[in-house]
Amino acid sequence: xxxxxxxxxRARSYAFAAxxxxxxxxxxxxxxxxxxxxxxxEVIVDAAFDVPGWLVRDxxxxxxSLAWSTASYGELxxxxxxxxxxxxxxxxxxxxxxxxxxxxQRVRGTFDVKSSNSKLPLLKGAQDWIDASQPEHLRILLExxxxxxAAGSYRFTFPVQMPDTAAEIPRVNLWYLLLCKDRSCTRxxxxxxLVSFAMAGFRPGQVSELEQHRVEVATGxxxxxxxxxxxxxPWLVLLELLACAIASMRMYR
Length: 253
Prior knowledge:
The protein is of the alpha+beta class. It has 2 helices and 12 strands, in the order E-E-E-E-E-E-E-E-E-E-E-E-H-H. Strand 8 and strand 9 form a beta hairpin.
């Protein structure tokens, strides 16, 4: 794959994403190479070879979504992470939601976390099925003796405290969902993280699409139609006047 640039690269971090087809199994040499070539000459200016890729796992997971209730600086919001698993699996022992810096989960116990799917094999026994010891992430613990996770959609909702000031909001405002084979993974790239997904974060005062949809359903208001009435009604009036004028002309013929 080749990207053609229309401006000079400066000293900063860059990232890009592309839709690709995943092979059915891990290639014998799962590595990538990135080369920067001079425009017009094809001379390699810099490059990174043998960048290790991830192993292909038998986990058919759809891109997760992040929703939230609107809250201002320093207030509590309810964050909801949803993902869909298309195949049954017994590889997982924990599910981790990692928050960006400045945001803190405020889970006090299992009563603060809502899980939507009863088929999720949560940890049984006296120990809680959540680990909320670190404010920067929330871990869902699965039952090791019966870890089979059925295909279906899964949703978690838990309280999150917003940053106190705008200065605390990170420039790269990303949340992460990690599906792990152990209980020690904390970030993408950890050996125990089988798959990880990045989700675009939000700012205090921002309204999520899910919340907006709920308001529209409750009130019968569709934001996608907003503004149409002001633009279409004058045309309707004009058409009505035109129809009346044509009818009058016919009467006096």
